[in-house]
Design a protein that fits this description.
This protein is of the alpha+beta class and about 140 residues long. Helix content is about 35%, strand content about 40%. It has one domain (about 25-140): Nuclear Transport Factor 2, Chain: A (Roll), CATH 3.10.450.
Length: about 140
């Protein structure tokens, strides 16, 4: 009886400890997912400073219509010009891959206001001292 109680106690302790470690450990891929979610939030709110901090100066994007846009079209250098805002979207099923100091994330972008509006997104990042910086984005219709 005492042996069974000790075994059960050890098992509960081990499972709790394992669960705590799995929650604490964050992978570099998780950092890329977090950077993407933060970028999407900042793009929705039009936070110029945060977008400038998270995007490379050479950033380029392809829109669902096929237009290729430089960073200055989305986040103009002139503070009197408005930041191009994206509608609010939720990043779904993100899949991130790291290749040295480059990361690629692919996922679905589901509109939070219209369930029929879904885009596929491919985000390309480079790792710099300040963290992951977005260098390219490709958006396409699902």
């Amino acid at each position: 009886m005492i042996l069974r109680l000790a075994s059960t106690t050890f098992l509960v302790f081990f499972l709790a400890l394992t669960g705590a470690f799995s929650k604490v450990q964050q992978t570099p891929e998780d950092d890329v997912v977090k950077a993407t979610r933060t970028w999407l939030t900042n793009c929705t709110s039009g936070d110029r400073a945060a977008l400038n901090a998270s995007m490379d100066e050479r950033f380029i994007a392809t829109t669902p219509a096929g237009d290729v846009l430089p960073k200055t079209r989305l986040v103009p250098d002139d503070p009197s010009q408005a930041v191009q805002r994206l509608p609010a979207v939720e990043l779904q099923n993100p899949l991130a891959r790291l290749y040295g100091t480059t990361a690629v994330l692919m996922g679905r972008l589901q509109s939070t206001s219209d369930s029929k509006q879904v885009l596929n997104g491919t985000f390309v990042y480079i790792k710099q001292d300040s963290g992951w910086r977005l260098v390219s984005l490709h958006l396409s219709r699902r």
